[in-house]
Predict the structure.
Amino acid sequence: MFTAFYKPHQIDSLGGSEWGNNIYQQARFLLVQNALKIKQTDKIYHSDAEVDSIIMRPYRTKTDSTQQVPTWTQRVNGKLSHLARRNYSLLGDSFFQEREQRAPQRVVDSLPDFRPVVPVPGKQSIYLTPALAETLTAFLGTQHTPLGSSGTMQPARASKESHKRQVFLERQLKLWYGHWGGYWQLASYPLVSAVTFDRDLTYARVSFRMVYEGGEAILKRTNNQWTIVWVQRTWIE
């Protein structure tokens, strides 16, 4: 599943990046994450009919102060609007906690020494172990210009000797200084923070980071092959 999702050479297929879709084009090496959090729940993917049914459940017997169902529940061509389905989708855990009688049962585990196969043409994978992360951070240092120093939306940036060392390493790999300052974001993106599988291992929900933003994706397994069926960036720092 990770191999099917991890596409640093095809970032456009993952919803794109604010830094462009070719940020790793010149990199020889990829720093691949070395740990992964795993969750399991009863169900992940729901059909349009199931989404509609759950969203509308509270409004079957109740109306607002005007005795009308909310305007956002009005249908177009028989379907709820995209906004309604997006805002009240079944991708987030908060939906179940707010709408269902109980949150879905889940199992949480982790892979602390994750070594995924990463078949990216022309790139060599290096696993970002804690020891390697510590070594790179010590070499790079944390000299930087603070967040917002040249504009409200400007992230912190490496400066002085740290910047020189970043430029030196970027002859071979791409690095990002931490958005808030005082740390490095070393992994080659996308960085998967967690994967949630359904009970039948048919669908998986991926929570991921793309430099200073992130989102979620849904993958489906067919004949033991995983493919992305939905992906969207949902937040930004």
Summary: Residues 215 and 233 are 4 Å apart (CA to CA). DSSP finds six helices and 14 strands in the chain. The two ends are 27 Å apart (CA to CA). The first strand starts at residue 29 and ends at 33.
